[in-house]
Amino acid sequence: MLDAIHYLCTTKSFLTNTDAQAMKHGADFFMVKGLFTRAEQEEEILLSLRKNDKKLLKRNDVEYQKLSDHIGLLPVVVISPLDTNLIYEGSKERRKVTDLILSLADSHYLHQLIRYNRLLQQRNTYLKETVPLRKCSLEILELYTEQMEPLAEYIYSVRSQFWEKTAKWLSEFYSQIANSTEDISVAYQSDLAQGNLAAMLREATARDMDVLYTTKGIHKDDIDMRINGFPLKKFGSQGQQKSYLIALKLAMYAVLREKTGMPPILLFDDIFDKLDRNRTANVIRLVRDMNFGQIFLSDTDPERSVQIANQFHGNARFFHIHSDQKIHIE
Predict the structure, then answer these.
(1) Fewer Cβ atoms within 10 Å of its own Cβ: the N or the C terminal residue of the chain?
(2) Where are the domains of the chain?
């Protein structure tokens, strides 16, 4: 159910890497439809996909020509056990979540990112196809540089501002969730912090021609997550890592809300199973008292779900999803 909401907001699943994995086993088609209220207007969103075909996305019965035009209409933030990938996987995972939040906040960012990635792919293809044949032209590489530089500078500026704001919220939220004064930080790392992209690409030309891909640029950006000055991945306990990730996603939520002027939908996907009682209570108190808007929460423990719902003074509805996929609403 939470993934269906995420699909309708972002056109993508947060649980799977490919749309085919979202289909029921043996099926060749799926469809999700939802009714949303935005700026006091009702929005009907329908997304469908047939195997080996492109996605169909409609807003109020009008089909989108480009899926990217939908991004940002319905801001959403999901917190799930899969967030540990932000710690243990490569920089691509951290860039992906950064780009999703910023795209939900500003469609211009998304369009600039698409343009940069398209040029990057073209440059890499050019290197692979021409260098082995000794036909690579420095003039053509320079044309790519001239087009990529302003896009990279813009993306770098937006990411830098985003992470500066996120870092401030992160510290505040972590201290409330963990009841701790530990030094928590997140730092944005980019090649562009050392200078402009054009100079870097020119300097890296020989290496790029050697490895046949572009070695410098905002597509190499990363995030450094630390606790008490040490890498979270190596020195954070399981509890510290969980608290950090929840605080990080809530910090992203706060920045997204500030940028859009509206509270995004917040999805809690089974995050309380291995969170101790105190931290669970602190998370619920935080999102309740700071008015985090509409929240969807999934949990396999019915008793805990009731206890959490009671913290919102009865302003909650329950959707019981049974093994046969039937849904009972209370």
Answers:
(1) C
(2) 1-73, 299-330
